[in-house]
């Protein structure tokens, strides 16, 4: 049954209460919607900031880690190089001591009984290498008589072997405190053959140095190729058995 006419005060109040309740409900739903959206945006922004900071921290840590690694490698390399240099200096000192001792022993050989034979062989080698009609032999002053005698024998052997003759002149210009031996020259000194004991020892030292290092210090791990040389005693190199 419908009703016409104006609403009384109670009905108006009831309607107003309904309208207020509806508006309040709408407002609460809208507020919840805004809150949910704000929470979502906050969570997204928070995750973004955390991610950025985390990447920045990781990058900073990685940079410091690499710096520490580089520093450690530099320190390790420096320590290794320092150790290697000490080893090389020690090895070089040891080799120098050996060479010094060999020089003393070679110098002592010039006063031995086989020295004259060695000088004869040295002179013969000079004559055969120069093949010159005239040769000058430099020697120690104290070896003058010995060198002349050895040169006479060497000349005979040279003539028998080559069919040539060579005139020998003598020059006592080598110092008496040298190891001994002779230096042959021709064409006014422009061509020379150094057959002194000191020079022969230097040649032998250079040739035997790789073998000496191998025998004394072992094989070089960084070396892939080796030159095999014949092992000969110093006596043979110096010209006598």
TrEMBL record:
It comes from the Eukaryota. GO terms for cellular component: proton-transporting two-sector ATPase complex, catalytic domain. Keywords: Ion transport, Transport. GO terms for molecular function: proton-transporting ATPase activity, rotational mechanism. InterPro entries: ATPase_E_C, ATPase_V1_Esu. Belongs to the V-ATPase E subunit family. This is V-type proton ATPase subunit E. It comes from Kwoniella shandongensis. Pfam families: vATP-synt_E. The keyword Transport applies.
């Amino acid at each position: 049954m419908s009703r016409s006419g104006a609403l009384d005060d109670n009905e108006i109040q009831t309607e107003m209460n309904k309208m207020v309740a509806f508006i309040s409900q709408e407002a609460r739903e809208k507020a919840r919607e805004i809150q949910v959206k704000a929470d979502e945006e906050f969570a997204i922004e928070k995750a973004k900031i955390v991610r950025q900071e985390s990447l920045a921290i990781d990058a900073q840590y990685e940079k410091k880690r690499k710096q520490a690694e580089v520093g450690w490698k530099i320190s390790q390399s420096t320590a290794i190089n320092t150790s290697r240099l000490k080893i090389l200096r020690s090895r070089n000192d040891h080799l120098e001591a050996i060479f010094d001792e060999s020089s003393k022993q070679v110098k002592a050989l010039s006063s031995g009984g086989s020295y004259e034979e060695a000088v004869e062989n040295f002179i013969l080698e000079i004559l055969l290498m120069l093949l010159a009609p005239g040769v000058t032999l430099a020697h120690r002053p104290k070896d003058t008589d010995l060198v002349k005698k050895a040169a006479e024998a060497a000349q005979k052997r040279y003539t028998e072997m080559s069919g040539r003759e060579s005139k020998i002149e003598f020059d006592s210009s080598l110092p008496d405190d040298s190891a001994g031996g002779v230096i042959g020259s021709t064409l006014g000194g422009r061509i020379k053959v150094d057959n002194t004991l000191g020079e022969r020892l230097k040649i032998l030292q250079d040739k035997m140095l790789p073998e000496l290092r191998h025998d004394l210090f072992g094989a070089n791990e960084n070396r892939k190729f080796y030159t095999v040389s014949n092992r000969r005693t110093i006596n043979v190199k110096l010209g006598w058995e």
